[in-house]
Each structure stands twice: as C-alpha cells, then as structure tokens.
Design goal:
alpha+beta; eight-stranded mixed sheet; 27% strand; binds flavin-adenine dinucleotide
Length: 500
Amino acid sequence: MGNREKKTDVILIGAGTMSATLGTILKELVPEWEITVFEKLGSAGEESSNEWNNAGTGHAALCELNYTVEKPDGTVDITKAIKINEQFQVSRQFWSYLVNRNLIHNPQDFIRSLPHMSMVQGEENVRFLKKRFEAMSNNPLFRGAEFSDDPKKLMEWFPLIMQQRPLNEAIAATKNEAGTDVNFGALTRMLFNHLESENVNIHYKHRVDNMKRTNDGAWELKVKNLESGTIERHTAKFVFVGGGGGSLHILQKSGIPEGKHIGGFPVSGLFLVCNNPEVVAKHHAKVYGKAKVGAPPMSVPHLDTRFIDNKKSLLFGPFAGFSPKFLKTGSVCDLITSVKPDNLLTMLSAGVKEMSLTKYLIQQVLLSKEQRIEDLREFIPTATVEDWDLVVAGQRVQVIKDTEAGGKGTLQFGTEVITSGDGSVAALLGASPGASTAVHVMLDVINRCFPQQMKEWEPKIKEMIPSYGMSLMDNPKLLYKVQTSTAEALELNERKPIVS
Ligand SMILES: Cc1cc2nc3c(=O)[nH]c(=O)nc-3n(C[C@H](O)[C@H](O)[C@H](O)COP(=O)(O)OP(=O)(O)OC[C@H]3O[C@@H](n4cnc5c(N)ncnc54)[C@H](O)[C@@H]3O)c2cc1C
C-alpha cells in the first residue's frame, strides 16, 4: 500500500451530473484553478444521473401536479411551479452557452422537445385541473398551454391512453409543447469529456473513504484506488460532496456541525419499460397523473416517451421499492451505518411520523407484475403483461431533518445544500427536482461558498446565464428572448412562445 499526498484547489466527489455542472461552471469562472474528481465507479453518470436510472423529465412544472396545491380557499397555489420553471430556464441558458461555445456538441444527444401533459380522471380532479390551468395560463412562464376535456381532442393528444377507454368517467388533460426529455446520463458524460479536455484530473475507481480538516483550514481526503488497493491522501481548499446517495456518509465523516441531526431514507424507483415497438410508436409525450392518496410526491405516476441512444422508448412508473442501499451500487448496511448518536432521535421521530410512507412502501414492494400492469391500465387500458418489462432505476435518499414547521424528524422531498460556515465544503443531499435544476443548485453552492468572489464573477455568470439574478416571470421580454434563443441553441422544435 502506498501513501501519496497531493494538493489541488478543488475536489469534486462523485462523477454525477451535479459535480459535472459545478466543475464546468468553475472552469469557466476560474480556468486556472486545479480541479480533481474522484469517482468510485468506472465511468461518469452511472448512478442516479444515468439515463436508465431516472425519468429524464426536464422538470419545468409544465405537467407535474405535485408542484401546485389547492389551498383551503379553493385557489391553486402555483408558487413552487414558478420557482421550478425559473430554475429550468437557468439550466437551458447554461446548456445553450456550452453548445454555442462548442464546449459540448449535438444537443439532440441530450435534450429533445416533447410535449408535457397532465392527465386526470373523475369530476373532482377535472375541476382541479381546470382551475390549475387557469391559474397558470395567465403567467408568462406557462403561456401556450392548452386544456381539454373533449375525448376527441384527447384522442389526438394521446391515442394510446384513449384507446378502448370506457368514457363513463370524466377525463381531462393539459398540454404544453415547451416540455423536454433530457438524457442526463449523456449530458453528464459530455460535461466530463469537456472537463477532461480542460485538464481536470478525473480519477475513476477511486473511492473517498474519509475527509478531515488540516491545520491550515483545508481538507484532507483519504482516497482508495479500487484497482490497486493503494490509499492516497489529497488536500484541497474547497470540497464538493456530490456523491448522490453516498453524500450523507461523507458529510458525516467531515464532522461539520451543519451536517449533524440529518438522516436519510432510501426509496428505490422501478419502471415498466415497453418492449413492443408498435406500442411505443403510438405515444409521444410525458403524461403525468395524480399521486395516489398516501403516496409520496416522487411516486406520481407518469407515462413517458424517452429518447435514449437515438431510440424511442416508453416508460411507466415509478413504482416505489425499498432497499437499505443509498446508491444502486451501495451496501445493504448504508441505512444502518447512517444512524449516528446525533441523528438517532431525528430518525426515530421520522419512523413514528412516517408510518403511512412505510405502509405505502410495503404495499409497493409486494406488488406483482400483474398488479403493476393494472396500475398501468389506468393510463393504457389495452396494456398487456407481455409488452412490458420491469427495470430497477436509481435510489433516492430522502433527507430527514428537524424543521420548525414539521418538528423533529421531518421527511424532505427537495434538494438540500449543506455548507460549512467557512464555505470550504458543500454537500448536496436529496433528489428532487434533481438534475433539471442542477445549474441553479450549483450556482447556489458557489454563492454560498465563494461570497467574496461573486462580484468579480458576476459578469461571467451573466454571460453564461443572461437572466441570472432576475425573475423571468417579471420580465416577459427577456423570457421571450431566453426561450427563443435557448430553443434555437438546443435545437428544440417547440412552438414560438407568446409575447405579452
Ligand atoms: C427514479 C428516479 C427518477 C428521477 N427522475 C428525474 C427526472 O425525471 N428529472 C430530474 O431532473 N431528476 C430526476 N431524478 C433525480 C436525478 O436523477 C438526481 O437528482 C441526479 O441525478 C443527482 O445527481 P448527482 O450528481 O447528485 O448524483 P449521482 O448521479 O448519483 O452521482 C453521484 C456519484 O457519486 C459517486 N460516489 C458516491 N459516493 C462516493 C465516494 N465515497 N467516493 C467516490 N465516488 C462516490 C457515485 O458512484 C455516483 O457516480 C430522478 C431520480 C431517481 C432515482
């Protein structure tokens, strides 16, 4: 066993889409900084960012019903939808910048236009969808959406869903042509290829096992070369923990007080994938439904056209599953070893509070393939068992923490950025809305960890993201410019947005 020590400016742990995004932004802001990446697997984008491990939805709140809530007074609150749409516009601008500068190529290899639709059944849900549509259609971010409860129109929008559907129940949908399917795996690989060409040191099959502070305030990482078995020591002034589900354990090892009292609960995702090309050819959209009562928000069922390796496929899900692993390639001991004296009470409180989630997960795990096909038949009445195969997607580790609103052990469904007080370490936990908002989230990391440099960096950030720091909703002209220029750069064939 050797024991080498190396110094670098920045260390990124994990080669997923988050590290890829942060590394790419930092290389544009400070090209002279030396960046080193450690990834325990053999290549980039193999865990949650892989195209088969997530749903590939460019989350812009055009179809996800869980981003809008009906308030007790009957009005629909679209605040969260606005936030997510604005964040996705930031991603589109950054990706366009990279394409326009020839830093990445062939946008069609990672992003395609695909209508986003919401579909509901039953009088009560139809009434909600109409109200939601009305609340959103006045907002410039969502203009261009259509609503219909006319079966003939719906047959045009999604024939597979309408085929042989008994029409004794009300059904309605909304459609927005500005939706996208994003291959986050391909994007991650493109970004790492770019980083490699910029002399970023990327070490695959290198696992970060520990990190501790050095006397001068930097961080020393203990890294195991999984091929040779050697242990290496690497130091950096700034460390980003982008280990996906693996981040919590590394954060705990850092010992920073901000990482205390936080736990994680893994929920796996499973999808049904259609193996019949005739069925695949009949559908062209992402159609999101309503989550079942008691189901967590990430279990909203959806029927998705996907473009992977230039091939069109059809996925339905996700079904939730349970595995104690925090990564698909993780260990069955992940959950138990994440329980520490400081988060024990938080975890126990969550266990008591989240009985309905536990019940839901047990029900989901026990589903037979025929029962899953029954769920699919709510979307495709003609679905047959032979046309669909079950595939296991990625692990999501939901953050559990103590909050003022929810009390001890509250389960979080969003993304959480944890930074040390001095900004020398940042960790990303949680998974939703995930990869779609990676650029916004990484800019937040930069803002929190490098406050002194922000003034100097701002012009470059604005060059990459012209709307940086502005609300697009309040600047419809800028929104139009951003939407049209990014559609052109990313070769999206969406309809021209409507200017107010
Ligand atoms: C079922 C499912 C569906 C989803 N659908 C969508 C969607 O439709 N749209 C969307 O925007 N997002 C979606 N997401 C979320 C999205 O996939 C994630 O937010 C995103 O991929 C996270 O990227 P990441 O870089 O943080 O993590 P990852 O892609 O998981 O990468 C983390 C990397 O760190 C490595 N690593 C971990 N520990 C160590 C260590 N100790 N040393 C070295 N390397 C380490 C891992 O091997 C891995 O390669 C979905 C997620 C799931 C699970």
